[in-house]
Amino acid sequence: MLTLWPACVRSHSLYDQITAAASTGFSAIAINSAGYVAARSSGMTASRIRETLHDCGMTVSWVDAVTGWLPVRFPPRSPELKGFLDHELDIAFEIAAELGAEGLLAIGSFDHGAVDRSRQIDCFGQLCERAAGNDLRVGLEPIPFWGIPTLRAALEIVDTVGAPNGGLMLDSWHFYRGDPDIALLERVPGEKIFGVQLADAEWEVRGDLQQDCLEHRLLPGDGDFPLDAFMSRLVRMGVRDFGPEVFSARLDALSAEEAAQRSAQAVRAVLIKHGVEAA
After folding, report:
1. Cα separation of 106 and 77, whole Å?
2. Helices assigned H by DSSP within 107-226
3. pLDDT tens track for 96-138
4. Which terminus of the chain, N or C, has fewer Cβ atoms within 10 Å?
5. Inter-residue contact 255 to 13 (CB < 8 Å)
6. Dist. CA 26–CA 178, nearest whole Å
7. Rounded percentage of the chain residues whose pLDDT exceeds 70
8. CA triple 242-248-250, angle to 5 deg
9. Between 14-23 and 33-41, two packed helices, what is the crossing angle to 10 degrees?
10. Mean pLDDT across the stretch 259-266?
11. Burial of 3 (C-beta count, 10 Å sphere; 0-12/13-18/19+)
């Protein structure tokens, strides 16, 4: 599965994101809560979004950036992210039900230490239980500048909960900007990695980590990250859900179709190099 993550086309409407994904050969699209809420607020009904997906031959793979499973949904030090992150959990389940999504991407967008580990584990278990009742998987994504910063931290939560529908979503940017523990990655069961977001960057961080993440990512293959080591392990594990996740001021300036096209070309090149059919 080749999923277009909304970061690549974040400066465009949900309608334009869907049509761009379809015209550039993606097989699925992830939809984030903020994009869905904005579309509904502009008068686009859930029925109309479904029709657009159907007309374009697109499916929804993931509901993106699900934060409402935790008591803290955005870091107070970053009020500019409130509109993107501060959404009730019910919205994520509404999106999944209305648009036929296959999974929820859970993130912990809180400052380090703001939610203790036992509470994280309890809340993730509750999320997985509710998701299971709706035939949804839950992929937990570690993010280095927030409260679940590393693969090790996310894996501890997933393993402790032990839910059949609970697993990981890995982002190559977060992996290499966090603790790029390839040895640990080697020990993760392949069936627990539900999907992979691909991005690259220069070795030198521009600004702080959050700024670098949200403005200065590069398309996979255009930066300094050793993506081959990351990809080779994931391909051997049988992971087949890949897609670009490139927050970039450069992509923001392009049309939705051009941004999606460049993102698709970059990811396909990486996948073909590793023997994965880029469909």
Report:
1. 20
2. 117-132, 151-161, 172-177, 182-187, 209-215
3. 999 999 999 999 999 999 999 999 999 999 999 999 999 999 9
4. C
5. no
6. 28
7. 99
8. 120
9. 120
10. 98
11. buried
Residue 183 reports pLDDT greater than 80:
yes
Residue 253 has pLDDT above 90, yes or no: yes
Average pLDDT over residues 1-11: 96
Helices 46-56 and 89-99, axial angle in degrees (round to 10): 50
The pTM assigned to this predicted structure is 0.96
- Both structure tokens of 84: 């993107």
Residue appearing with tokens 């278990």: 125
Q: Give the pair of three-digit tokens for residue 65.
A: 């950036």
- The closest of 185, 193, 244, 245 to 214, measured between CA atoms, is 245
105: helix, strand or coil: strand
Q: DSSP of 8-43, one letter per residue?
A: GGTTS-HHHHHHHHHHTT-SEEEEEHHHHHHHHHTT
* 127 burial via Cβ count (<10 Å: 0-12, 13-18, 19+): buried
Residue partners of 51: CB distance under 8 A and separation at least 6:
none
Look-up of token digits 């859930």: 46
Question: Mind giving me the DSSP string for 207-227?
Answer: SSHHHHHHHB-B-TTSSS--H
- pLDDT band at 176, cuts 50/70/90? very high
Strands (E), 15-133: 28-32, 59-66, 103-107
